[in-house]
Write a structure and sequence with these properties.
The complex is a heterodimer of chains A (110) and B (117). Chain A is mainly β. Chain A is built from no helices and 9 strands. Chain B is mostly beta strands and 117 residues long.
Amino acid sequence: QSALTQPPSASGSPGQSVTISCTGTSSDVGAYNYVSWYQQHPGKAPKLMIYEVSQRPSGVPDRFSGSKSGNTASLTVSGLQAEDEADYYCTSYAGSNSYVFGTGTKVTVL
Amino acid sequence: EVQLVESGGDLVQPGGSLRLSCAASGFTFSDYEMHWVRQAPGKGLEWVSYISASGSARVYADSVGGRFTISRDNAKNSLQLQMNSLRAEDAAVYYCARASTRRFDCWGQGTLVTVSS
């Protein structure tokens, strides 16, 4: 159960876009369309932002979008806003009711 | 309002035991699978354990298997994590999370476990 690989950091100016990658294997990301993304502000609990690769829960702005190709999933935040500055984690279902999280990416709004 | 509230975090010596609880409200607890996820200080999230809605199925991360036991009481809307043989690397904020179709859609605020002599 090795962690999914994410870049440690990403940044962009307000209004710009940032894309975060999440690389797994053919046993997790590549095997299932059950990749989800979580936003975590300092000292707070994670919040679901994307599920099933590209679905947005109600209340999540459409500036957040997700995709997947092979063993790599991606989260794109368009039209960056100050409140988007946070840590972002991907997770994938890995079979047999187990899950694996990504290493996390700190997004900075310049 | 859907709510999960963890409790039981404490300072414990290496080799010791601790029992965490998670009180659920605002939804039909017995309809949902539940998970524990932890986050070591300054580190990323790590999935720890799963329990089915009925409690009949349980799965653990390799890092805690054989030492941790997840359980639930659907009559009391409560989730537990019994942690034995605690190690320094088990120190973390422990979150309980509700799962719906392979996503964690509701999280508690977390409870801090410190393992130190």
